[in-house]
Amino acid sequence: MLMDSKLISKILLALLPLFLLTGCEKKWVTGIELGVNSTRINVADQKEGDLIIPVYSNTVWAATVTQGSDWLSLENADGNGHGYFDVHYGMNEADPARIGKIRIVAGEHAVTVHIVQSGMARGASSVSDLEL
Q1: Cα-trace Rg, the chain
Q2: Which CATH superfamily is domain 35-125 in?
Q3: Bridge-partner residues for 64, per DSSP?
Q4: Per-domain residue ranges for the chain?
Q5: pLDDT tens sequence across 56-73
Q6: With bands split at pLDDT 50, 70 and 90, how would you rate the model's confidence at 45?
Q7: Among 6, 48, 107, 125, which is disulfide-ready with 118 (CB 3.0 to 4.6 Å)?
Q8: Nearest to 75 by CA among 41, 51, 58
């Protein structure tokens, strides 16, 4: 049984974008030397936990804890291009909120991510941007 040539043309036209998309796979390229989603992360829980911080870069980068190393630790703290690193934070048994700082450097660019963790006392979770 032969198919109608109009039907064949319609099918091929419908499949053409699929063939074009699969044949032209291209890696996402950016001119961003260094970027993060946010420079402030609020942890509203006093308990220990983990965060994932994405890094957007077109070069080699590295992250280090510059404040709060007694309660913050990093894994996968360096990379090349887009990636992420893991942050583990310990339990905050003190009354006030606390602030940790993570510095990410890529080439001549740097950004600091502030981690603000709530304290045990009620209302001790707010830290203004001026206090960072």
Answers
A1: 24
A2: Immunoglobulins (2.60.40.10)
A3: 103
A4: 35-125
A5: 999 999 999 999 999 999
A6: confident
A7: 125
A8: 51
Backbone angles phi, psi at 73, to 5 degrees: -140, 155
Place of tokens 């099918």: 11
How far is the C-alpha of 26 from the C-alpha of 23, rounded, in Å?
Answer: 9
Q: Is 29 exposed, middle or buried (0-12, 13-18, 19+ CB in 10 A)?
A: exposed
126 Cβ partners below 8 Å, 6+ apart?
97
State pTM to two decimals. Answer: 0.72
- With a CB cutoff of 8 Å and minimum separation 6, the contacts of 81 are 57, 58, 59
Closest CA to 73 of 58, 87, 94, 52: 87
- Coil, strand or helix: which one is 123? coil
From the list 44, 43, 39, 84, the residue with the least C-alpha distance to 63 is 84
**Those residues with Cβ within 8 angstroms of residue 116's Cβ, 6 or more apart along the chain or in another chain:** 40, 41, 42, 43, 97, 98, 99, 125, 127, 132
35-56 burial, b at 16+ Cβ within 10 Å, e below that, comes to bbeeeebebeebeeeebebebb
